[in-house]
Amino acid sequence: MEWLTTLFNKVFKMAKMSKEWKWITMIPLYKNKGDIHSCNNYRGIKLLSYTIKVWERVVELRVRRGVSIFEKHF
Fold first, then answer.
1. Cβ distance 21 to 55 under 8 Å?
2. In the predicted structure, residue 55 carries a pLDDT above the cut 70
3. Residue 14 domain-assigned (yes or no)
């Protein structure tokens, strides 16, 4: 796990991400309601590598720590 922490810290410091990390596969998933031929009745599912899934969580946690959102704002 230490190697992953080191990698993520380097990515943050350099502000550059591997091109491979930016590639995802988007799968349309029918919501089981409405016309099956209408795009509005589908939602996208991202297929990602394990590393990028962890990366997204790390970024989300760092953003949440840096931003205060109060319930009254919603």
1. yes
2. yes
3. no
What would the pLDDT profile of 23-38 be if each residue is shown by its tens digit? 888 999 999 999 999 9
Q: Is the pLDDT of residue 74 over 60?
A: no
Measure CA of the first residue to CA of the last residue in the chain; give whole Å. 37
Whether residue 7 is contained in a domain is answered as: no
- Containing structural domain, residue 44: 22-66
Is residue 53 assigned to a domain? yes
Give CA–CA dist 45/29, Å, rounded: 7
Count of domains observed in the chain: 1
Inform me whether the pLDDT recorded for 4 exceeds 90: no
Residue 28 falls inside a structural domain: yes
Count Cα atoms within 13 angstroms, Cβ side, for 41: 9
How many CB atoms neighbour CB 62 within 10 A?
12
